[in-house]
Amino acid sequence: MLEVEDLAVEFRTRDGVVRAVDGVSYHVDAGETLAILGESGSGKSVGAQAVMGLIDSPPGYVTRGSIRYRGRELLELDEGGMQRIRGRHVAMVFQDALSSLNPVFTVGDQIAEMYRVHEGASRAEARRRAVEMMDRVHIPAAERRYGDYPHQFSGGMRQRIMIAMALSLGPDVLIADEPTTALDVTVQAQIMDLLAELQRDTTMALVLITHDLGVVADVADRIAVMYAGRVVEQGAVSALYERPAHPYTLGLIESIPRMDDERDELVPIPGAPPSLMRIPPGCSFHPRCPMAQDVCAEDDPPLYAVQPGRESACHFWEEVLTSHG
Ligand code: SF4
Ligand code: MG
């Protein structure tokens, strides 16, 4: 459904070139959920913005690669062509519902507007369908709440409204960028359940962008782990979760709190991700990697095929695999 290949995005700033995304490839099939996991500054959101055609003016440049939707190259489309794709075929939900919704219009009217603008629906028809969408994302008393303003909803309910808007035109691909970050843990789980439910009922492909492996482990089919603008490991969730093949993934898993936790404390990965203006030579993770050896500071690891559908950008992926479980 969506295929990203060797995508590179840079920002040319006065202080230097920020290589936000540097050779990222992933794909997501109909009915599948792909999680793109990474710390802030890993390039995970920038990649999604490129898919939506939102990196199209200085200082941001897509310098390389391909983004295909149903086999069609999106990077070749002009703004008009992208507008026909955006929303109707590929839609996006952002982290911050409050700033994405217009405070001066009722939520119902904002959803209805989608049908009026994009499908030429009559006022009554647009309203009816907006209420239907609010129902689908489980907003209680949708009919009555149609006329309420964004500030009258809780954070979780506002995120449901954003999801309703994104799904209003029936996209084939939904990209959700940190859709639950601003919410408390219980509400996060409810929104994840909702996304999983909405996706189950359709053949929509879902791309979940997150920094929180704990949030996506239950809903994603596959995970692509990003570090310093690249994918460092990808594969099926269960495989990756049970037996990571990259020290960074292993570190992320060890830093997730768990119910059955017998460890006294969580083990966060020491250090911070590099500035995307000064990515370390060799393996970009080597300054933080507990398994680093001399070669790591010099040789940039390619994505090694670990198993079919499973890749790791670590010279020592076999050692990582056997270092646990
Ligand atoms: Fe660590 Fe070396 Fe593997 Fe990079 S290549 S993740 S530094 S062991
Ligand atoms: Mg982000």
Task: Describe the protein in words.
This protein is of the alpha/beta class. It contains 12 helices and 12 strands. It has helices spanning 44-51, 79-85, 97-100, 107-119, 123-136, 142-145, 155-167, 185-200, 213-216, 237-242, 247-254, 317-322, and strands spanning 2-13, 16-28, 33-37, 60-69, 72-73, 90-93, 173-177, 205-210, 222-227, 230-236, 304-307, 310-312. An 8-stranded mixed sheet has the order 6-7-8-3-9-10-12-11, sandwiched between helices. Strand 9 (222-227) and strand 10 form a beta hairpin. Helix 4 (107-119) packs across helix 5 (123-136) and helix 5 (123-136) crosses helix 7. The protein is globular and about 70 Å long. The protein starts with a strand and ends with a helix. Iron/sulfur cluster (SF4) binds at residues 246-247, 283, 285-286, 289, 291-292, 296, 301, 314-316. It is a peripheral membrane protein. It is found in: Cell membrane. Residues 2-253 form the ABC transporter domain.
Task: Give the ordered list of helices and strands.
Answer: EEEHEEHEHHHHHEHEHEEHHEEH
Q: Any low-confidence stretches, pLDDT <50, length ≥5? A: none
- Report the C-alpha radius of gyration, rounded: 21 Å
What is the overall number of helices?
A: 12
Span of the ends, CA to CA: 35 Å
Secondary-structure-derived class: alpha/beta
Task: Enumerate the distinct ligands.
Answer: iron/sulfur cluster, magnesium ion
Strand order of the largest sheet: 6-7-8-3-9-10-12-11
Strand content: 15-25%
Count of individual beta strands: 12
Chain-averaged pLDDT: 91
- Helical content class: 25-40%
Largest sheet, described in full? 8 strands, mixed
Overall outline: globular
Protein name: Peptide ABC transporter ATP-binding protein
Domain ABC transporter: 2-253
Membrane topology: Peripheral membrane protein
GO molecular function: ATP binding; ATP hydrolysis activity
